[in-house]
Amino acid sequence: MKKLAVLFASLLMSFTLHAKEVAGVSIEDQLTINIQTLTLNGAGVRKMLFMDLYAGSLYTKHNTSDANTIINSKTPVAMQLDIVSSMITSERMAGTVNEGFETATSGDIAPVRERLDNFISVFSEDIVKGDRFIMLMIPGEGLKAYKNGTYLTTVEGDDFGRILLKIWLGEKPADRNLKRSMLNG
Fold this sequence. Notes:
Blueprint: H1 2-17, E1 20-22, E2 25-27, E3 30-33, E4 36-48, E5 51-60, H2 67-71, E6 77-83, H3 90-104, H4 113-120, E7 132-138, E8 142-147, E9 150-155, H5 158-169, H6 176-184
Antiparallel strand pairs: 1-2, 3-4, 4-5, 5-6, 6-7, 7-8, 8-9
C-alpha cells in the first residue's frame, strides 16, 4: 500500500511539472533567462476575429492575480510571446506595440518615444510562425528583449517596463481574455 501511495504521489508530481500547452505551444512552468528564474503566473492566447495570433505567457517571482502588483513589481517579470499565426508581421507588430503604448500612456507617449523607437526595432526582422519573443523587466536595470533566445536590446527605465506590461495587464488590455488567463494561471 505504501508503494502504491509513493507511485501515486510521483505521478501527481509529474503532472504538475510538465509544461502547459497553449495554442499548440509548449509553455514551461519556469523560465530561466539572464540568471533570472521565474515561475509561470499564467498563459493564454491573443485572438483576433476567432484567429489565434500568439500565446502570451507571464512569468513572475511570486504568483499573483493582481495586475497592479505585477506592473509595479520590485522583482523581475517576463512576458513571453510565441507567434502562432503568419498574420503577425514585423510591420503589424510594430504598429500594435505603438498602439499599445498610446493606450497604456493615455496618449502621453512623448516621455518614452525615443526608447519606444529603440524597442520597436526588436520587431524589425521578419517575424514567422514559431518565433518566440521574451521581454524581461528587471527593476533598476530596464527591459531586456530577446528573440528566439538571442539578446537584442536593453531599454532603460522601470517606467518603460511598467508601460509595456500595461499593454496586457492594464485597465484597457489588448485582450481581456488573455489578461485573465495570465493572471489566473
